[in-house]
Amino acid sequence: MAVEVVMPKFGLTMNDGILKRFLKQPGDAVMEGEPLFEVETEKVLNEVPSPASGVLVNFLFREEDTVDCGVVLAVIAEPGEDIEALRAKYRAPALAKTDGAAAAVPSAAATARAASAAPQGRRAITPIARKRAEELGVDLSAVEGTGPGGRVTREDVERAAQARDGKGAAAQPAPGAADSIPLKGMRKTIADRMMRSLHGSAQLTISTEADVSAAVDLRGHLGRAAEFTYTDLMIHAVARALRRHPRLNSAIEDGAIRLRGEINIGIAVALEEGLIVPVIRAADRKTLSEIAVETRDLGVRAREGKLRLQDVEGGTFTITNLGTYGIDAFTPIINHGETAILGLGRIVERPAIYRGEVARRSMMTLSLTFDHRIVDGAPAAAFLQTVIETFNYGER
Q1: Selection from 396, 351, 347 nearest residue 217 by Cα
Q2: Residue 143: which domain range?
Q3: How does DSSP classify residue 101?
Q4: Which of 8, 88, 106, 212 has the fewest Cβ atoms within 10 Å of its own Cβ atom?
């Protein structure tokens, strides 16, 4: 009996996904568990395995179509079935959510593109590189990847475009020309989630300038042996502060404030195409060294497009750092489903009163946005104080 392949649901918040790339073509033999196509969700790019062995009859949507979870998007014929009869039966295309118009079986050109993108042993291509190749009209099969493991990056695509055009820079819009950038994919997801967060909670931001000289001195004293960043140190401090202030590690569910059983710290990572928040699970039970190793790994895999769904789910509190961009203070927006987010500014040396005298001290501005429905200003300020103390002097 033919097997209908539906758009899977990765997590409770997923309603639809973007069909990014076919890894098999109609008429191909497929094995159960073998990658069949790629889906871009609100968080990551996922490979979807075939649910059965047989022959792929067809796809009912085009690449880049948005498909609701549970909708049939492909059909697999089991051994002995009449493929032509199935192809006729499933000829009527489903409706793509992108434009409400009927989506046909992929064109020969789309099939050729997908086939060339996956010669024997699929090539690794970052999502932004694939998007840039479409914008510049670059054939990815002819691009040499210079990323880890031969992965094709945005820079590889732009170099290929420059070489093709014989110019020193990739093609740019004419001066004064109006550009239109579709609000879709990760950018649309970020927009939707931020608006949902703002409209669904009572957000308030408090800021303080903290003397973090002790933390700076500690890292300076360790020198090259300091394999952790200030962000790592802050994750370590926040996770322990949340033990003493559990309201900041909660959420409103079914009309009640639910305290989370685990302390899972999300770290905002900027990508070329948007923002993603990988999660350090059980951060309060990990050493500073363990946190440093994990954040480095997650950051690298985030920028290479290699994060798995489990890497970005389950966060209970988020930290975002704009200090590396020279920012002092800002008003971060709470990650939907959480109670608070902590924004880190840059660390700068300033004259300050220390032990009754003017001294040169390392100062950093911390900005805490919290849901006022769950936490009031005084408890939020007390949490911020605990974070600063722990950041400087360790767990007490």
Answers
A1: 347
A2: 123-169
A3: S
A4: 88
Same-domain check for residues 163 and 204: no
Is 376 noted as a catalytic residue in this protein? yes
The Cα angle at residue 124 between residues 122 and 126, in degrees rounded to 5: 140
How many C-beta atoms lie closer than 10 Å to residue 307's C-beta?
A: 22
Decide if 178 is inside a domain. no
- Taking only the tens place, the pLDDT of each residue in 76-128 is 998 888 888 888 888 645 444 444 333 333 333 333 333 333 333 445 676 66
Closest CA to 77 of 145, 12, 140, 5: 5
Tokens representing residue 12 in the block: 């409770």
* Residues 68, 163 within the same domain: no
> Between helices 230-244 and 377-393, what is the axis angle to 10°?
130
Residue with tokens 């918040």: 13
Evaluated on CA atoms 212, 372, 338, 287, the torsion sign reads positive
Catalytic residue among 28, 82, 165, 372: 372
Closest CA to 340 of 309, 306, 315, 358: 315
Q: Which two tokens stand for residue 279?
A: 């999660």
Q: Which of 199, 234, 195, 178 is nearest to 366 (CA)?
A: 234
DSSP letters of 253-290?
A: ETTEEEE-SS--EEE-EEETTEEE--EETTGGGS-HHH
Could you say which DSSP state residue 33 is in?
Answer: T
Total of domains in the chain: 3
> pTM of the full predicted structure?
0.68
> Under a CB-based contact definition with an 8 Å cutoff, are residues 183 and 326 in contact?
no
